[in-house]
Each structure stands twice: as C-alpha cells, then as structure tokens.
Sequence to fold (97 residues):
Amino acid sequence: MLTVIRLAEGACGRAILRGVQAGLTRDVAAGAIYATLDRLEQKGLLRSHLGEGTPERGGRARRYYGVTNAGVKALNESRAALQQIWRGAKWPIEVQR
Fold:
C-alpha cells in the first residue's frame, strides 16, 4: 500500500511490482503482487479502476490502484503498532554472548 501511495496516479500493476521489488531489493513474483492487490481490494483497503486502452498495449486498458480511507487508517495503525513494539529497544540490536 505504501508503494501505491508513492506512485499516486501512476499506480498500475507493473509499476507497483517494480516499486515493491526496488524497496525490497529482491525479486517478487508478479502473481504475488496481483494476488495481494486483489486481496487488499476485497478487504476495502485499496480501490481500482480501468484506465484508457493504449495502442502500445493492443488496446487493453491498465488497472490503476489507490488507497482507500480504510487503507490509510490501517497503515497508520500498523506504523503506530511497530513504533510501540520498538519503543525502548536499542538499535541496532547486538548479539548477546
């Protein structure tokens, strides 16, 4: 969802895939991204719409994604929970011998 927010109006499937891969510095299967996008949309955290078809895509339309208000709320709650978990921990964590 963070990648969708970062991409704003350009948040289509392939751009999201590239953004996630860049953020993780590893390959992610396209199918995993599309399955996750579908699941997040079913949960009401994302919304999507079809754009115009383009000659480069043989007239096929791209699907664009956006984060819903519920998605923004979930992201904020997730970040707050992580901050609470890490509160008081020294960083970086060192191995205890």
The chain has one domain: 2-86. The mean pLDDT is 92. The longest strand covers residues 46-53. The helical segments are 2-7, 13-24, 30-42, 69-86.
